[in-house]
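>> received
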Amino acid sequence: MSEPMTSWLETQLGAYIDDLRYLAGIDSGSYDKTGIDEVQDWFQQQLGDLGFEVQRLEEETCGDDILAIRKGDGTRKVMLLGHADTVFPIGTAAERPVTIEGDKLLGPGTCDMKAGLLTGLYAIRALDQIGWNGLGELDFFIVSAEEIDDRHSNPLLEGLGPKMDAVLTLEAARENGDIVTSRKAGKWMNIEVFGKSAHAGVEPEKGASATLALAHIITNVFALNAMKPGMTVNPGEISGGSRPNVVADYARVELDLRAWSNADLEELIAAIERVARQDYVPGTTVEITIDPDSGCPAMEYTAGTQRLESAAIEIAEELGFSLEGAATGGGSDVSFACHAGTPGLDGL
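>> returned
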């Protein structure tokens, strides 16, 4: 089955490079609505030409999202997933136009992830070349704000993901070519300590040091690293106190928490709360909050994902190269799509 497709794809390399050069020549940073919408205009046209029903999900300030759906003859539902935004500011495309150096094509957003979006598009075209239409439904979802924390598409991903039999994410592979089969769950936790100020030289005994209490909390919370394999706690941002001669009445730390499963993350959060609420310095109180919009759920390594991984490895061998699955601590759109256990592969 693969030979007719690969033979056809080899004839399309020039067209693929031309398309990638065009798309990478469009500035589409996460806050550049005009540029992102231009990229989405192009994909909307291409997917429409391939028989997809394309929904343009308009956004006022961010770029628009695109959800394209095509029905087929089978029963399974598969989603291709990617994003149109990049991390590069306006002007980068002009300053650093696409160049080809040996077997590398370099430019802003070529790897992450305009090449990925194009790969999905050309894969659909290759299947069409052999007349294969064996899915019940193929969705192609291109979001506009993956590279920033304000991901307006998350609720839609969380709603669509459980309806799919598989989610295939067109993000970049690992540096060595590995695909991604699991991603950690993560959250940001804010711990604030409230104490009582006093003059450190004249009457320190009348104070209650929030910074001292926070120092105990950070040390003991950090000891929870590797409470289970993959659990991590990072005290990333710390502040507190006013002057060296004043007992601090306030201090805070923001923690980055990660774990391989959603259940493990909840266990880690509970352990941190127990540790943080101990009475380290009499007269201080602690307030703990979790940013509800921070982080992401886990893309867990389920039995379904393991089957997809095995299939991908087998296909790679047929095509003449080796492939392995890898776990990574970072999150992506696939984490939200697969939050309820839908099998998925990332880094394709």
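>> The first strand starts at residue 53 and ends at 57.
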